[in-house]
Amino acid sequence: MRIAVFSDNFYPELSGISDSIIALAGQLAARGHRLCIYAPRYAQRHFRRLGLPAAEIDLGEPIAIVRLPSLPYPTGTRQGRAVLPTGVPRQLRQFHPDVIHVHLPFGVGLEGLRSARALGVPLIGTNHTPLSEFLRYSPLRGPRCERLAVRYGAWFYNHCDFVSSPSRAIFEEMDRLGFRAPHRVISNPIRTDIFRQLGSRELLKARFNFSGFTVLYAGRLAPEKRLDLAIRAVASLVATTPAVSLALLGRGSAEDDLRRLSRSLGVEGRVRFLGFIPDATTVSEIYNAADAFAIPSTAETQSIAAMQAMACGLPVVGVRAWGLSEYINAANGILVDPGDDAALARALLHLAAHPEVRHDLGEGGRAFVRALSSPVIAAEWEDVYQESLRRSRCRRGLSWQTDARRPGAVDRQAGEAVSPAYLTGVTSHGAELRDPSLQ
């Protein structure tokens, strides 16, 4: 199958969306599919910001990347780009896609929508973003702007043959403003082959110069991540837990403010800024050197970083907001109210004082994430693409000939029979399918 992927952010931008696309593309290519990814063109400074060589990422021969002309756009990564739709890319007609998958509803997403209509192929959408929440950290904030943004998202995704999101909350928000397309929750793919429990934590602590009880965060350092709460929580614990420290892995527009906050609270020696580390194996080792993972963000549809932490056996402390409350539960972590640094501190203190609780939650997280591994999610997407293509061709009266895996076939990588979630109406972690055409 030939799959065209359209996304408004991609490598080298620091983004979970980019990580998700790369992980899924690799798995689909390994299953014999060909992919072409359409994404904004980035300037050399965007590579330098993360210490990356200013060169295209090599994802292997079955995966092509086409860059679209773009303009600067302010985001929390300081790498954002905006693409103005200009029509069906010439290369796309030559690629002759079977399906088009759009990952965001902006310039590149609109290019994907127009291309799907022009070529008569199924359009698949994934909504990764709680638009109303992100607008609260932008100049266009306010209830009216938030409502318009969500209404636009519902309009865009209503053009899709099928829509996924890592979070039910995204669908609930769009439902209130007219979203009606067939949809269900599908997790981001998690690289459990890389992010896994490793050897001695003490040896890894020594390697990365971690000491005592180390709380880790990984991802972009942006205002919506509310990392000020994590710094305030650690500052409040210093008196009772002298060995506590916070490690922030990543870069972003809030870094300078977070450094100033650490100095003002007198904990600059307890808060370490690790920067961006491109090597995933090293990042996995850093997870394994920490004792707990904290994510006080109010703008997550899932948090790939939190899932990676679980895969490495870390307990996760998050907030009851959006997707975090759908993935963090009593078996793998602790949920606190948004904006409550005192509650966050209490949760971290509990974990620091009870190593047996950390162990049990870590084991629960590892068990939970197995169902979200890249091979499992790739198989689910394979079924979605195949069924969307079948329906599209049936509507147009065309025969459906494909090398697709049929229901009941054996997945050679997973070693088990395939039960297509698209047909059964159940996702990899239990959410129901809503498809008006099947009701």
Key terms for this structure?
Rossmann fold, 17 strands, alpha/beta, 39% helix, 15% strand, 7-stranded parallel β-sheet, 6-stranded parallel β-sheet, disordered C terminus, 439 residues
Model description:
The chain has 439 residues and is an alpha/beta fold. The chain folds into two domains: 240 residues, Rossmann fold, CATH 3.40.50; 171 residues, 3-Layer(aba) Sandwich (Rossmann fold), CATH 3.40.50.2000. It contains 17 helices and 17 strands. The strands form four sheets. The chain has a seven-stranded parallel sheet with strand order 3-2-1-6-7-8-9, sandwiched between helices. It has a six-stranded parallel sheet with strand order 12-11-10-13-14-15, sandwiched between helices. Helix 1 packs across helix 16, helix 9 crosses helix 14 and helix 12 packs across helix 15. The radius of gyration is 22 Å and the shape is globular. The C terminus is likely disordered.
Topology record:
Layout: E1 2-6, H1 16-30, E2 34-40, H2 44-48, E3 63-68, E4 71-72, E5 81-82, H3 90-95, E6 99-102, H4 107-119, E7 123-126, H5 131-135, H6 143-157, E8 162-165, H7 168-175, E9 183-185, H8 201-208, E10 214-218, H9 227-237, E11 245-249, H10 255-264, E12 271-275, H11 280-289, E13 292-295, H12 304-311, E14 316-319, H13 324-327, E15 333-336, H14 341-353, H15 355-369, H16 374-395, E16 410-411, E17 416-417, H17 421-424
Parallel strand pairs: 1-2, 1-6, 2-3, 6-7, 7-8, 8-9, 10-11, 10-13, 11-12, 13-14, 14-15
Antiparallel strand pairs: 4-5, 16-17
Helix pairs in contact: 1-16, 8-11, 9-14, 12-15
